[in-house]
Design a protein that fits this description.
single chain; about 170 residues; alpha+beta; Lipocalin; 9 strands; globular
């Protein structure tokens, strides 16, 4: 496995999963870690209601680590990770592939053939957070005073991946 290159990896940053929740992939001591930053109003739940451990079902999904131990296989592939799916309460092995502004996250049991791929997109939260409608309808895991940092970090990532997206939205 290649060493983790935090400054240059296309995996790092904020991603939007299919229901609209924002997920952050970041470097951690075990490789890449994945956690929930904000929960979409379209998400099935805001708490861990499907967890097999009944004592954890009331915990918030905000800032919950749902992935860990991913290592780079090459510049656009990461593998060896573990994924927790809060929509089912199941834990899977995982792989990730980045293709431009798209991340393909595959969770599986035993062999990758026996799994499911979910497609995430680069988060456009930097634009959505400035509208009252989004702020009122989403469940943000961070306090408002941290929003400026979140905007800056997401803005930088969007610029690196899609420079045209920022200029066309301004």
């Amino acid at each position: 496995m290649a060493p983790l290159k935090a400054q240059t990896s296309p995996f790092l940053g904020d991603w939007q999963e299919p229901t609209g929740s924002i997920i952050r992939i970041e470097a951690c001591s075990s490789g890449f870690c994945i956690r929930i930053l904000s929960i979409s109003p379209k998400a099935p739940a805001a708490s861990d209601i499907y967890n097999p451990d009944a004592t954890l079902r009331s915990r918030s999904l905000c800032n919950l680590e749902i992935g860990s131990h991913f290592s780079l296989s090459d510049a656009t592939h990461a593998s060896g990770g573990t994924l927790y799916d809060p929509k089912s309460g199941n834990t899977y092995r995982g792989t990730m592939v980045v293709e431009g502004d798209t991340l393909r996250l595959r969770g599986y049991v035993m062999l990758p053939f026996f799994g499911k791929t979910e497609i995430w997109r680069v988060s456009m939260e930097v634009f959505n957070l400035v509208t009252k409608e989004y702020r009122a309808s989403s469940h943000c895991c961070r306090s408002h005073q941290n929003d400026a940092h979140l905007h800056f970090k997401t803005f930088t990532i969007v610029l690196m991946r899609k420079p045209w997206a920022v200029s066309s939205a301004i």
